[in-house]
Amino acid sequence: MRETLTLTAADGHSLSAYRAAPAQQPRGGLVIIQEIFGVNSHIKKLCDGFAADGYVALAPALFDRVERGIMLGYGPEDIDRGRSIRGKIDMTDMVKDVHAAVRELADAGLTVGVVGYCMGGTLAWLAATRIDGVAAAVGYYGGGIAAAVDERPRCPVLLHFGETDASIPPDHYQRVMAAHPTVPVHIYPAGHGFSCDERASYHEPSATLARTRTLDFLRQHLG
After folding, report:
1. Which residues of the chain carry a pLDDT beneath 50?
2. What is the structure's pLDDT at 81?
3. For residue 148, how many other CB atoms are within 10 A of its CB?
4. 92/190 Cα distance (integer angstroms)
5. Which of 99, 160, 180, 192 is the catalytic position?
6. Which one of the listed residues 47, 97, 99, 118 is annotated catalytic?
7. Active site includes 11?
8. Is 192 noted as a catalytic residue in this protein?
9. What residues have CB less than 8 Å from 63, skipping those under 6 apart?
10. Which residue in 163, 159, 77 sits closest to 118, CA to CA?
11. Catalytic (active site) residue 118
């Protein structure tokens, strides 16, 4: 089942969210947090995939605070536009919107996890450190995690990075590993966005292994 919902954040802001649900009894709920390209075909495909794995997947449209209906591709103009929109939204407001999605799933009686990519990878970390009710969080190539390394997760966290990622040098995830030695951090022979099959940087072996690790982690902590 696939549908679009409207969520309301704590400050009254309303935003849309793409929801995909399994046919069977769900294992739990997942908030899928977008890259800088909006809730585009890749994010929706991720939601559909997690639904096939047994989770209710909900992707809040974080760019609704600036412009609604953003669904970008991965070309240079898309990157520029995505960065421009991202720069107009405070990270604290995006955490509020993620919280609204967590609350939506929790109110349905589901144990809630968070999985984020790129910008969403950073927000997955912030969800773990700032939002009550998150049972587990997974961050893919979150470039802002090192800046929030002093924040303490309230739930188990799993992190994925690419060793040839030009935007996230090794010292970033090394800082995270040093500050949080119990947080599993996996490094892959790949670049930024290696899990997205719509990007030139897609690296199938790394994406497959990261997904396997993610699902094992989620089953451990969500069901």
Report:
1. none
2. 97
3. 15
4. 30
5. 192
6. 118
7. no
8. yes
9. 34, 38, 70, 85, 86, 89
10. 159
11. yes
